[in-house]
C-alpha cells in the first residue's frame, strides 16, 4: 500500500498515544501500525529516548517510526538513525544550571504535599525536568498529585516563581505530564523538531494533550507550520486520527 506523500503526522507520546507513564495499549499499537501504512509518522516527546521506547514498547518499535524526536527534538532520529543531538549544559553553562537547580530544590523543599518521593531534578540532554512530588513515585501517587495540582495549581505557581527568579536567563518553563515542569532554552520547545521536517512536507499535523498555554505541547500545537489537534487520551487520539485519515474503527 502506497503512503500519502507530503503529509506528516507528529504525535506526543505521554497522554496522547499512551496513558500517563504507561506502556502503549495493544489496541493503540495496532491502530498506529494502520496509520503508518497510510502516512509518514513521527513521535515527539519531552522524555528521553529510553522513556519513549519504554512507553512505545521497545527501542526497536519506537525507532520503526519515520521520525523520533526525543527531548522535544533535541535528540532526533530519522529512519532509525541519530541525526542531531543538543546539550543544555553547553548552551547555557554550568553556572546558570546550578543556580536553577539550587533555586528549584529550595522551592520544592518548602512545599508540603501528601507524599514526596525521589528524583526531584532530572538532567536530560536538552532540558531539566523538575518534579515537586518526585519522579520515582508510584502511579497512584502520580494520580493523587495530578488531581491536587488541578485544584491548587502547584506547578503553575512553581512556573511563575521560576519566571520571576530567572527573567532574563533565556530559559522557558512548561508544565508537562502529570507531575513535572520542563526547563529548556528559549526555542527548544517542541517546535525545535520542525526544522528537520518542514521543508519535506506540505502538511504537518500534530496531536497532543498539553496544548493549553503553559503546556509543553502548546508551542507546536499553535505553530503556523502545523495543524494542531488537542486530545484528551489515547482513545480520543484514535478517534481524531481515524476521522482525519478516514480509517474505519
UniProtKB/TrEMBL annotation:
Main location: cytoplasm
Gene3D superfamilies in UniProt: 3.30.1240.20, HAD superfamily/HAD-like (3.40.50.1000)
The protein's Enzyme Commission number: 5.4.2.8
Signal sequence coordinates: none
CDD domains: HAD_PMM
Entry's localization field: Cytoplasm
Enzyme class, broadest EC rank: isomerase
Keyword Cytoplasm annotated: yes
Requisite cofactors: Mg(2+)
Statement: the UniProt record of this protein carries the keyword Cytoplasm: yes
Entry's Gene Ontology cellular component terms: cytosol
Function in brief: Involved in the synthesis of the GDP-mannose and dolichol-phosphate-mannose required for a number of critical mannosyl transfer reactions.
Assembly and binders: Homodimer.
Similarity annotation: Belongs to the eukaryotic PMM family.
Protein name from the UniProt record: Phosphomannomutase
Native species: Armadillidium nasatum
Amino acid at each position: 500500500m502506497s503512503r500519502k506523500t507530503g503529509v506528516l503526522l507528529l504525535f506526543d507520546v505521554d497522554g496522547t498515544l499512551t496513558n500517563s507513564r504507561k506502556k502503549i495499549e495493544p489496541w493503540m499499537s495496532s491502530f498506529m501500525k494502520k496509520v503508518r501504512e497510510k502516512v509518514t509518522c513521527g513521535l515527539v516527546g519531552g522524555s528521553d529516548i529510553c522513556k519513549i521506547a519504554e512507553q512505545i514498547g521497545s527501542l526497536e518499535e519506537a525507532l520503526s517510526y519515520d521520525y523520533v524526536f526525543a527531548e522535544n527534538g533535541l535528540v532526533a532520529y530519522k529512519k532509525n538513525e541519530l541525526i542531531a543531538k543538543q546539550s543544555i549544559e553547553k548552551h547555557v553553562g554550568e553556572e546558570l544550571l546550578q543556580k536553577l537547580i539550587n533555586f528549584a530544590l529550595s522551592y520544592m523543599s518548602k512545599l508540603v504535599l501528601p507524599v514526596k518521593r525521589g528524583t526531584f531534578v532530572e538532567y536530560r540532554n536538552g532540558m531539566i525536568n523538575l518534579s515537586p512530588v518526585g519522579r520515582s513515585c508510584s502511579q497512584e501517587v502520580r494520580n493523587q498529585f495530578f488531581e491536587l495540582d488541578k485544584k491548587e495549581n502547584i506547578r503553575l505557581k512553581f512556573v511563575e516563581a521560576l519566571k520571576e527568579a530567572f527573567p532574563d536567563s533565556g530559559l522557558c518553563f512548561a508544565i508537562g505530564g502529570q507531575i513535572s515542569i520542563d526547563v529548556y532554552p528559549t526555542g527548544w520547545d517542541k517546535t525545535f523538531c520542525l526544522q528537520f521536517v518542514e521543508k519535506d512536507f506540505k502538511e504537518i499535523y500534530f496531536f497532543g494533550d498539553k496544548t493549553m498555554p503553559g503546556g509543553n505541547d502548546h508551542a507546536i500545537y499553535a505553530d503556523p507550520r502545523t495543524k494542531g489537534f488537542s486530545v484528551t487520551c489515547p482513545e480520543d487520539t484514535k478517534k481524531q486520527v481515524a476521522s482525519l485519515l478516514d480509517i474505519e474503527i
